[in-house]
User: Fold Polysaccharide deacetylase from Bifidobacterium thermophilum.
Amino acid sequence: MKEVEELSFGDSATGASERKRHLWVGKLVAVLIVVALVVVCAGAWAWEARLRHIIVFVNGQQVEISAGTTAKQLLKDHDNFGTHPGRLLAVDGSVIKKYGGHPAELRVDGSVIDPADWGNTRFSGNADISVKSGGDVVEGHAIDYAPIPYTVSVDIKGSVIQMVKTRGKDGKREIWVGDISKKRTTKRVVAQPVDAQIVGVSPRPQGHKVIALTFDDGPSGQYTAPILDILKQKGVKATFFDVGQYSVQYPALEKRMVAEGHEVASHSNTHPFMPKMKRDALRAEITAGLANMKKASGVSTRMMRSPYGSFTVDQWKDVYDLIDYNVLWSIDTEDWRHPGAQAIHDAVLNHAYNGAVVLMHDGGGNRDQDIEALPGIIDDLKAQGYEFVTISGLLKLAGISAAPLADKGGDAKK
Assistant:
């Protein structure tokens, strides 16, 4: 028999062990290489992101920062470079909240960075950064409107007829009412006020030779009718300034004045001295006089002659919305002194001129001398070439008129 060859496993076991050892060494080397790579990469990242310093320019000034510094950290580290959010303001400009306005503005290389992104924004070297304070914010508001009161100017010195040239009209202003503060402030003028103007005029119509006869204090049961008879006979028109309480006492006479082409206007209601009257009493007096005239004759007028011719700047300011004209005179016959018919006649003829307004009376006392003087006054004035006009006729010939009622702005100021 052949001898069985003896097998030996000693060398094989040793080889396997050697291979296993080499495998573990390889793995360890690989791990070490990976760790080394991680360390190197981490170090590189740390250097790039945290340890490396870069230069940036903030508002033109050079600043050295870590490469990974965020915009938020940059501002915090430098106290926002002296900037701050804007203020929250009330509508009148007062401060409601010191930092309640827009946030500070940050720009990087010209681009605005939203505040929400400041924590994620980093910079490259030589970045151009600008920081400025935020703008103020005005609180929300509601809009209201308020009037701007107009004023009244009166320039009537030395004139025969006083009149309303322009009627006052309030202006208008826009007001903002703060939602938070509730404060009110004017923001703009929507419309400027138009001032009321009272001016004096003394009409002298060019190309004419006219004169206006006027009679005060009627109607009277004794003297008005004879005067109307003379005027009718002579074909002359005149102006009667009637007292309201007498108008309703003698309505037929006032109606006759109107029917025969004369002008009727107010001489108040009870003939008071108006400068002594309080505003409300004065307005009531004038209103009653005008109302009684309308009741008596149906005439609505805005023309008046103040009793005694006394009517100052203060009275105009109190009642300029009630009347258009206050008519005085340029020739005073002083018939109330009873100087005689000839003196009354001469007072007119010696002072007559184109546009003159003559003062006589048909009531308020004995007017026999007026009745006696009137025919001669008319005849002699006609002989000199005069024509007779009413006050409205005189104004029309002169091209003068008060402001139209369409421009009326309201009651006289209290």
Q: What stands out?
A: Confidence is low (pLDDT under 50) at residues 1-10. DSSP finds ten helices and 22 strands in the chain.
